[in-house]
Write a structure and sequence with these properties.
The protein is built from 14 helices and four strands. It is mostly helical and 288 residues long. The protein has one domain. It has a four-stranded mixed β-sheet, with helices on both faces. It is globular, with a radius of gyration of 19 Å.
Length: 288
């Protein structure tokens, strides 16, 4: 598949409005500057990088060249430098982006087994979207949030410190909204809504021997039904969120798939494909 390249594209083209709002709310939490200062003082960015390198295999032209080629092509689509790419052994599918000074992407081995090569383009675009949108600092801080709070002498969420609770909830809310942004970048790289939906479906169901029986259409029907629940069920969703998922760092898979579909239906994706998008050399919000 020949993919369209978006020369000079700015992250303004795909950053979700809720991502922006949640980030502003996070930055307004008084405890955040102290936490970030401690993150740099202790050198946790370098520690995380060294740990990842010690526990993973770095991809390149001579090491997992298929993954490296997917990374190379995905970076060309989003017009951005190539970060380091790693594979690590783990039976639970996942991938993440970290590294403030030296960004890197780590993919679990089970993720490679779960997704097809085309679906891996969506995954790679998703992770690159985090980097291009400037998520890596806050994602890195979030990954070590509990020990950082301990380092600055604040009690963690379970012990009831009000400032810590506010920070944890704000960080989790921003993290969930950042995933919506990253999914859009994944679609810009896969350049197939069907492929991107299939990737989300495969991750939601997990690796299993009946994966050939999965239905994209049924999954989208489920996503639309979830969004269209009646008032009583909607109240139930709020209660479930408050009790169970308010500290989740990722949105529920059905919800994020529906959000991606809504973005396409808004016409924003087609405008980018047509070359109408903000460019890095232009003021924020400008497009041509």
């Amino acid at each position: 598949m020949k993919r369209r390249k978006f020369d000079g594209i700015s992250s303004d083209a795909f950053v979700a409005d809720n991502d922006r709002r949640a980030l502003e709310a996070l930055k307004a939490v008084p405890l955040l500057p102290t936490l970030i200062k401690k993150f740099y003082e202790v050198g946790l960015d370098r520690w995380l990088y060294c740990w990842n390198m010690a526990m993973s295999v770095r991809c390149g032209p001579k090491q997992y060249r298929t993954l490296h080629e997917i990374l190379r092509e995905s970076c060309a689509v989003l017009d951005m430098p190539e970060p380091e790419l790693y594979v690590t052994s783990n039976p639970f599918p996942n991938a993440w982006t970290s590294g403030v000074e030296r960004p890197y992407i780590t993919i679990r081995s089970s993720m490679i087994d779960t997704l097809s090569d085309e679906q891996l383009y969506h995954l790679m675009g998703h992770e690159l979207g985090h980097i291009k949108a400037g998520h890596t600092l806050y994602k890195s801080v979030a990954s070590v949030l509990a020990p950082l709070l301990e380092l600055i002498g604040r009690r963690t969420l379970g012990l009831g410190d009000a400032a810590s609770i506010a920070l944890v909830l704000a960080m989790a809310e921003w993290s969930r909204q950042a995933e919506i942004t990253a999914d859009r970048a994944g679609l810009l790289v896969s350049q197939s809504l069907d492929t991107s939906i299939d990737a989300n479906l495969a991750l939601c169901a997990g690796p299993n021997r009946l994966s050939h029986e999965m239905s994209r259409e049924a999954f989208m029907d489920q996503a639309r039904a979830y969004q269209a629940m009646n008032a009583l069920d909607a109240l139930g969703k709020v209660v479930v969120f408050l009790l169970l998922s308010s500290t989740f760092t990722h949105p529920m898979p059905v919800h994020r798939t529906h959000e991606l579909d809504r973005w396409v239906l808004s016409g924003a994706y087609d405008r980018i494909l047509a070359g109408e998008y903000p460019r890095v050399e232009e003021p924020a919000g400008a497009a041509r």
